[in-house]
Amino acid sequence: MNNVLIFIRRYAHFLFFLCLQIFSIYLIVHYNKYHNAVFSSSMNQFTGAVNTQYNRIQEYLALKKENEKLARANEQLQNQQLRNFENTDTVQRLVIDSVALDTLGTRRKWMYLRAKVVSNSVAMQNNFIVLHRGSQQQLKEGMGVVDPGNGVVGKIIEVSDDYAVVISLLSKTNDFKVSAKLKKGGETGSIGWDGKEPNLLTLNDIRKSADVKKGDTVLTSGQTTTFPFGLPIGTVEEVIPEKSTNNFKIMVRSSANFYNLQYINAIENLEKDKIEGMLKKAEKKIGVN
Amino acid sequence: MSVLVKNITRFILFILVQYFVLDQVHLHRLVTPYVYFLFVIWMPFSTNRSIQMLIAFALGFTLDSFRHQPGFHTAACVMIAYLRPFLVKLLIPQEGADSNYDEPSPKSFGGIFPYFIFISILTIIHHGWLFLLEAWQFGNIWYFLVKTLLSTAVSLLMIIIAELLFVRKQKFRTNTV
Hints:
By secondary structure, chain A is of the alpha+beta class. Helix content of chain A is 28%, strand content 29%.
């Protein structure tokens, strides 16, 4: 017993060092998976608050560029307004309908929620974006995130009261992939990132029979509940045939610029619960799980 | 300024500079310069070794919290905090120099050359361990090996600039104090 105590005393520093190292490695293994990307909601609140302060300065410097972008978006929206269009026949009248569920049977399915980016990274292997909008402002886990030009950015994975963390499309983890579609041929695949150059994504699972060329558009497929159909993801940069499989590996230049995200839109699927509830019921019926 | 206040200020400044300036500068995808661990290198000689490791742990953990990837910098900082006293014993020229000065600097090491070696070794260990863990977690060993070498070179350059810009006055303390 005495010898054990002497041993511990002699190597106290080394044992303490080992403990700390093992704890660090435990953190790495346990928390760097997609599900646990944010390890504590309180730490998230704290770093979010610091980021907000810094962002107030940064935002001021980028005001000019942001103004231009907003003006452009404004112009586009103004042009879409109904009062710009004239009806020549007097039988029709313009009516503004404020009822959510109108008589033609259309319902709102997607809802855009604006949020400010307070922290963003592109240099790591898994990149995260922090938004200054949280569960008290209607953000939920699992919502898709796009930039002002509708280009896909990522997906919300963690919300605290006032902040939300988005896993960026620039993430190497296999747990986050976006279902994508080639605009021309309609082939679907999954889009991810190889961890090398920011703004350059990889599109996998496209058969070699597909007709793909440089410059083709890649869209969201609309087959998941996260993104609506037809949002731009990027344009084809390079088509590389994989040697061992029957698929292409396609390099895609993203349409969202991940370097200068200032404001983004989170997209809520108002029918998500319905769809997922039905899927669960169907799975139960045939005895899965 | 007391040693405690000085070190707390340094802690906060290094974290802010590292996360808000250096992490946002994208020189190249293979180069990410790190300077914040200079805090660990500059810690006073006299601090208890376990306390040193604990402070280094806190430093790494804070940076990791900002980057949302816990563990990597924590492990690297603890590693250099553990190895630092051995290197000090090995490289400091005359007996008792580490009790005559507060913290490592070219003056307490008796010249720029031994101090530079001291810093280089700790930088390589920090970067090596950091990128080894990243390689283990994310694959692709060659990519990370090249990244280690290039990042070490750039980090060292920035550390030298930092040392030249912020000259630390080191008073000689006699043993009788």
